[in-house]
Amino acid sequence: MRTDHVIALIADIRERAHEWIVAELTRRGHPGIVPSHGAILVRLYDQGPMAMNALATAIGRRKNTVTVLVRKLDEAGYVRRQGSPDDSRVTLVALTEKGEAFRGDFEAVSTALLARVWGGMDDAKRQALVAGLETVRDNLG
Predict the structure, then answer these.
(1) N or C, where is the chain less crowded by C-beta within 10 Å?
(2) Residue 92 sits in which domain range?
(3) Which of 46, 32, 36, 44 is nearest to 81 (CA)?
(4) Residues in domain HTH marR-type (predicted)?
(5) Based on the structure, what is the number of domains in the chain?
(6) Quick check: is 81 in a domain?
(7) What three-state secondary structure class fits 92?
(8) DSSP assignment, residue 90?
(9) H/E segment holding residue 134
């Protein structure tokens, strides 16, 4: 089996997953929400309001990238930015009612995507694939 196209394969899978997610979110009434918003929403669902710096660290993205993503979520009504009551230099990000209401669709889309990705692949193959991809990631630093 040829293996020299691994990066192109990963990129193709990412693009197809991205397109599917966007289409599914749009179908469910959430146009404008994209996969890069997912990491932010997961953290807020799990931990509640977070400082922008902590959020950037938690999802492994630069603060300026997170600022842009949060601004888009804020403009769409899923989150709100507010000053910290403890430190005026800190901006907190919190879910709105719309953001909380989105949780069901978010989880449903995530579950449907994983079902689509794994198809009929058995658990041993799933684990081997994930282990291999983690090694590739770690090899790249």
Answers:
(1) N
(2) 6-139
(3) 44
(4) 1-138
(5) 1
(6) yes
(7) strand
(8) P
(9) helix 123-139
Tens of pLDDT along 4-53? 999 999 999 999 999 999 999 999 999 999 999 999 999 999 999 999 99
92, two tokens: 């907190």
In a domain? residue 27: yes
1 is a domain residue: no
Report the share of the chain in percent with pLDDT over 70.
Answer: 100
For residue 118, report the phi and psi dihedrals to the nearest 5 degrees.
-80, -30
Residues 6+ apart with CB under 8 A from 77: 96, 98, 99
Residues in Cβ contact with 63 at an 8 Å cutoff, skipping those fewer than 6 apart = 52, 53, 56
Predicted confidence at residue 5, as pLDDT, reads 96
Q: What is the pTM of this model?
A: 0.87
**d(C-alpha 21, C-alpha 32), whole Å:** 11
DSSP structure string for 68-85:
HHHHHHHHTTSEEEEE-S
Tokens of 6: 């691994």
| Alpha-carbon span 38 to 59, nearest angstrom | 10
